[in-house]
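Build the 3D complex.
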Amino acid sequence: MTTSTSRSPSRLPPSSSSSSLSRTETLSLFSLTFACVAVLANTFQGDGEPLIASLALSGVAFAASFAMIRWLGPTLMKAGLKGTDMSKHNRREMPECMGGIAAVVYLLVIIVFIPFPFYKDIVAATSGGGNRDVVVSVVEGVERGRLLHKFPHSKLASYLSAIISLQSITLLGIGDDLFDIRWRHKFFIPAFASIPLLVVYFVDFGVTSIVVPIPLQPYLGELVNVGVLYYVYMASVAIFSPNSINILAGINGIEVAQSIVVAVLLAINDCLYLLTPYPHPATDSHLFSLYFLLPFLGVSGALLWHNWYPARVFVGDTYCYFAGMVFVVVSILGHFSKTLILLLMPQIFNFCYSVPQLFGLVPCPRHRLPRFNARTGLLEPSVTPWTRERQPRGVVAWGLKVLGGLRLLGVTVDEEGRFVETTNFTILNLWLVWRGPLREDRLAMEITGMQMVVGLFGLFVRHGLAQLVFKEDNWSIGAAGV
Amino acid sequence: MTTSTSRSPSRLPPSSSSSSLSRTETLSLFSLTFACVAVLANTFQGDGEPLIASLALSGVAFAASFAMIRWLGPTLMKAGLKGTDMSKHNRREMPECMGGIAAVVYLLVIIVFIPFPFYKDIVAATSGGGNRDVVVSVVEGVERGRLLHKFPHSKLASYLSAIISLQSITLLGIGDDLFDIRWRHKFFIPAFASIPLLVVYFVDFGVTSIVVPIPLQPYLGELVNVGVLYYVYMASVAIFSPNSINILAGINGIEVAQSIVVAVLLAINDCLYLLTPYPHPATDSHLFSLYFLLPFLGVSGALLWHNWYPARVFVGDTYCYFAGMVFVVVSILGHFSKTLILLLMPQIFNFCYSVPQLFGLVPCPRHRLPRFNARTGLLEPSVTPWTRERQPRGVVAWGLKVLGGLRLLGVTVDEEGRFVETTNFTILNLWLVWRGPLREDRLAMEITGMQMVVGLFGLFVRHGLAQLVFKEDNWSIGAAGV
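Done.
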């Protein structure tokens, strides 16, 4: 365990404090971009393999957001988008809301990508006078029946609705970072942003029936139409995912790292469906998901580079909302929202664990991030102090004691048994209760690792147990029980 | 002609400087909202007439943006989005970038509207496992063949691409207002925002053939495929329209008023196609256009209320870009971009007239808006001064003299024939050269009136002359030469 007592400035590249790229960085980014553009150009030679094109565009997205995050730092600070890192010896100001830049680059890339997976099916002519004057030929590029190839035209509306939802959350997230919207209002930002997704789901797909697990089928039948409840469910996922990422925050890199882990796990899950020997009914949905996740990994990588300890930029609420919404759109449009919930287990735990403070049973300070000990340079759990006059009562006191006994909370009592302080209810503080003081990057790394392990276990459970309660696992149709 | 020498504070409602609504305003907005929601609910009783629903939602959009513009003023000013009105006696600060709020309300309304014109054509069930497990029935709500009714599902992608373009321009416009992007960069903001529109046009419609005017048909045939040039043309329209509105600016209310005039003229043009006795091939395109224009008129009305002389808010570049882009999406997707160009004649004149200053042939000061004469309270043409040392030369001097002689420029020369000052090259200054000093609202009203007259003439020309160069006018197919 690395517990060096000072920052290691050697990790900072020479140009870290400037807003320009070093020569090495310029060359690397240029080479990456060049290689990606070459690959992209090459896809035109064949049938325009969308998956290859998506990978290449994700490389371009990485390079573009890397450069823009560096260049636009001073501009953002000048416009007042800046913050101070409270867990460092020297509290210098840094640009805030860099997630907005990553999101804008992402959106541009995902828009430019549209022609790769979608083909046109009508060729006609217009006089520019408000109607197609001549429909020359009706169907040109029909579906080729090839795996990993083009989507049917009808999927375009879903793709576009996902873009609108992501754009909405970016717009509202930037509004939040600019205007410092109150907690109880900002909680509903993802709800607004999910409207386009749900509205288009309604007009375009409209499926609200769910398959009943086998044990319940004798009572409910094979299918149950849950109607409007299905939209309530989807809206709940859409509200929860972005907010849950937004509250697992507060130390350098944690927002981006956890998002990258979830994206990687979703991408692994997608790949399971692509590796089946013959086309699986869900292949399209998972290809669709990959097309959204790969560029997300591109821009997030560039952001993590700058936001990892010691951070040189902050990501802002914009990034947390945006990342959470990417997961929402792929899982809702791909119909694997239950899988997403499995992968967000640490976030769900963090939310449930936070409930006593979020709902005011235990006093909630403005910031609950771990406390920086300037002497050791390590993070320690931050605490809620209890005075002699203000002591928890009844069930709350009992609960705090039980949690303390189970080592699910750091509790300090004085000799008379009165509460002196209890640690704040976040997974980051709990981890520090378990592991002792840690340096900021170490904590971020361990939480990220835990998320990865829990997520992989979740995927295993999902594909192992699904066969017990449903007729068959979705990807085992093709992979025959693998 | 009203040329009172002072502001008339009586025009300000009592609550003008506060950020709350007066009781009358609250009651009016509440009644309007209530009425609109009632109408909206009523459309569900029948077949859900989309045009009625669009009108009702536009009323809601007016009320919502009216209230939000009032309420959010202090929030915007706190975030640094504020400006000073230079054409007033007391130069107090006002919230800037209110167009952003209008745009966000507009986008929400246009998204919520989606289910009205589009129907779903597939009912299926999902296990949530990545695929439609059971497709229950394939086609439910088929097109009813009724006029003014539902769109075919294939039009949904166009609608969504328009939303993405409008969201993009809002996002980039807010960026411009926040970061004060340089002129030569911001010129291309609409180009970026038009990418979604053009990309989806490419995969969804892809028509790049144009009907050749009759006199040229012997040489070129009936149709010419202009290929990539058609995209260049569309991109040019997309770049020009928002920028042309952005440079016809600088006095209270002019940005919004000119946009409302263009929107009204486009709506009149759309109605011509809806009033044909039987379904016209272009009816759908023009309904589509109305669905975008009506809520635009709603939010613009609310904005004009606050931005008209004496302005209490500024609209920001966001509004100009946004308004221009609304015209672009309806005219490109409706295939009447030539009509849009006709309706933007004053803007085109203003742009061409500005060229000497935009391209540096004549010095261009930072602000070219008319000069406020504090003594008379009237606006006078602002001028570029020429010193004895710096005199225009050669063709520029000759050009200035010719323009001055034609009364297309205010030119002051001294007794030795040297240039002392010339008015700045904007239509607003030119109008003041023609009409003499005017009060700010009078100038805005006259320019708006001129735009209306020119636009109506343009529409007349378009429907009168089109028959001479094409086989038939697009709407006369149904209206038989009306």
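The first helix of chain B runs from residue 23 to 45.
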